[in-house]
Design a protein that fits this description.
The protein is mainly α. Helix 6 runs antiparallel to helix 11 and helix 8 runs antiparallel to helix 11.
Length: 437
């Protein structure tokens, strides 16, 4: 069988199964079984497939995934950090669109303690959006900042999806986690600049209101009690990895333990919170591990069938500069993000893109970070971005999906701007990992 016939067979079967309504992960597993039988020697190929599955899931680098997800669930169910939002609010003062700015700052802070975009968005949405609506904020200034900053959990460590992508692309987990910090801060800065400038130019979209005066001494005290302890979690997760004191797995374990200790210290840890957090973590981790199995096995079948080598040969023979091929890859991911969740689109793209990236001698860490920004954008890309539906669930009942779509567009443009900067200046992604011990 020619390589292009194998490619059409594998991808065509997968597309047909997905269009039939079968979950993406199960579609991949079924295609993997069919491909193993055809290209890897019949029944012996299926046996080899099972051995590959075991090897894919017993990687030590995947250990932080359930721990980071667990941190996010504990953070969400215990409502840990709600008081910290109030303290940040006191420091902001009378800046234009102050509640929108608070959403961006709060989302960035929560992202450094939660590996879950869903948990961060749900927390900020349920806490801030009703207050903003009550004060007359336009939906573009209330919903948009929450969705945008909620997605930062995918870039800023601890990010379970960064670990997943690092495992699929076979690169350093700690390196990719640290690489997301600087682009994540840049995106948050773009969000903050946008809401403040728009609030200044169009004050009717974010009406100013009287702010309760809080003494400087009270601000310092509240910061010490409610904000600085959260900084300990940030240090356990990010600082220990960066300093080379702990591996990502050890940092994730310490971060999870620190989150539990903090929830207990604030009196927010109960058996109900613990039960919900564990069950939620098991469900999400199970889904992510199925995706890892499907994608890694699909990559191997693509290699066995000759489809990968044939595709690489065509791409490398194109009369295009490597950067143009990279741009085409990102445009493809943006298109997939309109119709798939971020996990599914990476599952489809990585087995095809990774051999091309290696053949063009791109830095895989740099490309993985760009893909991570693309995954973050897929969360708010109409019509099927996951955070769009989370936002709908926590917004006031009169909020329509079209309003949510429009509210997210300016923040998608900010994401695109930073992604272009990272593509033009790779050191934005590679600088901090180069300093790691």
């Amino acid at each position: 069988m020619e390589w292009w016939q194998a490619l059409i067979l594998l991808l065509g079967t997968m597309v047909v199964l997905m269009l039939s309504g079968m979950p993406v992960a199960l579609s991949f597993l079924l295609v993997d079984i069919i491909g193993a039988f055809i290209f890897m020697g019949g029944a012996n190929g299926v046996v080899q497939l099972i051995l590959n599955i075991e090897e894919s899931l017993t990687s030590f680098s995947l250990l932080p995934v359930p721990l980071f997800v667990f941190m996010g669930d504990v953070m969400f169910h215990s409502q840990l950090g709600f008081k910290a939002i109030d303290v940040l609010d006191h420091w902001i003062g009378k800046i234009p669109a102050r509640l929108s700015l608070l959403a961006v700052i709060g989302g960035t802070v929560f992202s450094t303690m939660s590996g879950s975009t869903l948990a961060t968005t749900a927390i900020l949405g349920s806490l801030l959006v009703p207050d903003m609506e009550r004060r007359g904020y336009h939906k573009s200034m209330s919903i948009g900042p929450v969705m945008g900053s909620g997605g930062l959990s995918m870039l800023i460590p601890p990010s379970a999806l960064a670990i997943l992508l690092a495992a699929l692309n076979q690169i350093s987990v700690g390196g990719l986690l640290i690489a997301g910090i600087l682009p994540g801060i840049m995106i948050a800065s773009c969000y903050a600049s946008y809401v403040v400038i728009r609030g200044f130019l169009q004050p009717h979209l974010a009406p100013p209101f009287e702010v309760q005066e809080i003494s400087f001494r009270r601000k310092i005290k509240d910061t010490a009690v409610y904000v600085l302890p959260l900084g300990l979690i940030i240090f356990l997760v990010i600082g220990l990895i960066f300093l080379g004191i702990a591996t990502p797995s050890e940092s994730a374990a310490l971060g999870a333990l620190g989150t539990l200790a903090l929830a207990f210290a604030y009196g927010r840890l109960s058996w109900e919170v613990l039960k919900k957090s564990i069950l939620g973590s098991v469900k999400i981790t199970g889904m992510m591990f199925i995706i890892i199995v499907g994608s890694m096995t699909f990559s191997q079948i693509m290699a066995f069938s000759g489809a990968s080598s044939g595709l690489i040969q065509i791409v490398t023979n194109l009369d295009l500069a490597p950067i143009m091929i990279l741009i085409c890859m990102q445009v493809t991911l943006l298109f997939l993000g309109c119709f798939m969740d971020n996990l599914s689109m990476v599952m489809v793209a990585v087995p095809i893109f990774l051999p091309i990236v290696q053949a063009l001698h791109f830095d895989t860490l740099w490309i993985s970070l760009i893909m991570l920004i693309n995954m973050e954008m897929a969360n708010t890309t109409p019509p099927f971005g996951l955070l769009l539906f989370v936002m709908k669930g926590v917004s006031p009942p009169d909020t329509t999906m079209s309003q949510i779509y429009r509210a997210g567009l300016p923040f998608l443009l900010c994401d695109t701007f930073v992604m272009m900067l990272v593509m033009i200046f790779p050191q934005i992604a590679l600088f901090l990992p180069s300093l790691m011990k």
